Amino acid sequence: MKFPRWLGPGAAAFLLVWLILLGAGRSAFFRDPGTFWHTTTGELILKDGFVRSDPYTFTFAGQWWVPYQWFGEVGMAVAHRAGGFDTQLLGAVTLIAAVFAWLTVRLLRTGLHPILVCGVIALSLAATASHFHVRPHLFTLAALAVVAVLLADTDVARPKLKRLFWLIPLCSLWTNIHGGVLGGIGTICIAFAGWVIFWKLKRPSPLKTWRDVGLLALVACGCGLSTLASPYGTDMVKTWLVIMDAKELREIIAEHRPLDVTAPYAWPVLALAALYLFTLYGVKRSALRVSWLLPLVWLVLAFSRCRHVSLFAVVTLVTITAMWKHTRWALWLAAYRPDMYQPGSAESRPWWAHAWPAAIAVLLALTLQMARVPVPLIGSNWVQHDPKLWPVEVLDVLKEYEPKPGEPNQLFNGEYIDGGFVIYHAPGYKVFVDDRCELTGGPWLVDFVRKSNEPGNAIDDWQVKYGRFDFALTRTGTAFDVWFSTFPQWQVIKVTPTATFYKRRPT
Description:
Helix content: 55-70%
Shape: globular
Strand content: under 5%
Structural class: mainly alpha
Number of domains: 3
């Protein structure tokens, strides 16, 4: 299919991915508890200014806490004000679709047949899909794609090195949105160090003189110092280090666990890794570039913690695009299968040819959502929270009994993921725990999860330490649920297949 000059294939790629993710993400993008408390935190910052202590729990009330994703949380709150969870989904899907449409265009420009390009893009999406959630982490996906493109283009096309100074404002913005900036800075520094080594070894490198080395040093220092460019200063860095040091999280939080190669979600990741290694094997050793080795770093990180899988995928996609024409496989296809690969055959189009249909679609969806018009996929009231995952069926009584200021408000929640749910839907309660591991600490959170299987005297001990519980929200049939159901001082307000809500009887 040949597109007219005023319509680029990037537009088709964007709309296809965008519509698929809007449909698939209706509830799947809202499976992370962070979506709830990120939104509430953004509203709190907009209302009261920067938060520096825990405002949500009674166990850690007033304790030092830095919302290290504050700017992303403000963005989520603004989107929520505009059109609720529907607009948050719209923003998340638009960001993902834009990244993959951009990478699709870059891959098409190599001369590969669109069928092959679609296959590679589909594989990359399949590898990353399990990590698509409405939260600031998605910005790291986009920002790392930009970093990878800048590094790959500099390594191969060798434009002026001064363009790398754009990495500094990118890292400054990134710092205030998500802690993944550390991964971005690490990637930049690895590439810079590799360029210096390759230059001294007389291998392919964009460096020509020691002046170039000095320029890289300035960029690296600027990116490093950008981590202090936030209203929280060194407290931001301190929070990142607390999370990175919490090795216990691998036991209880899925995205912090090592990659399980036997699980279905890992199979596309392994296939993408095999594709990358196959492509890399086709490069002559004399033509090898430093930036083409960066996916190896992210592959190791993905095996260490599966939350890095999406970042491995975008870096790999950029790298395959950059090194493809330098492989023996490209030479073979050009000679024997010109129908599948014709270098230089891609038509150049202005950037707006790829962008204008996407802009119209997004503006239409945003208009419908702000006007509260219920249209499937792109309109209002599309997003639904899975009642099998979230205790939505107890929301009525949760809000009915929600304490007013000055009333007893301590709610014990038997699942830490339900903390964020309550924080958003019924902020009058103070919850026992949520998934902010930088607040609770890894050992405390792991101990809580372990005791959820055999409460024993834990609940009594917690009430002695943190104060008497006034309400309880448990998952139906769990050990915590059984504990509360056996004591007469606890009144069952509502039982659902997912959760049960209790209230302490007056004494």
